[in-house]
Sequence to fold (176 residues):
Amino acid sequence: MAIGDGFRTADAPDNPYDFVASLNASRHAPAGERFSHSGLNTFVLAWLVGKLTGMPFQDALSKEVWFHIGAESNAACIAPRDGVAVTHGGFMARLRDMARFGLLFTPSYGNVSERRIISEAHVAFLTNQGNSRLLANADVRMPGVKHNIYQWDAVFRDGTLFKGGWAGQGLIINPA
Fold:
């Protein structure tokens, strides 16, 4: 809703960048105290990637990640308005290519890429730095879940990362 893809009033800007730039957001709780799912941060980060690289987010992703994993196929980002990628939930790829992407978070990254794209420090951050109180505030109760963090919906006590997708799809990675 916060980027105008789920609901907009008739007078809201149609371009997602204009919509976000004109958004008058309010805070419902201090940062870190209540869980609130939003694609706004992901959208703004993708917008920033586009500005810094001088190319649309989906092209930067292709150049910096997809090209390096030996993907069998192009991936796709849903881009319903003005060719702007829905970066918070519109990514589609072949199963084997998603597995290749998942390997980037493991010591086996060398099976798909000559260089380490996801640093060990970042994986350690994901597996150790989430705020477990937020899931309790969201009334999320899954056995073995330690926390969630950024785009990862669940990080389990053994370090396994889970990202859910549409229609029950998801990606599960155990970095160890």
The chain is about 30% helix and 10% strand. Strands lie at 76-77, 91-92, 145-149, 152-156, 161-164, 170-173.
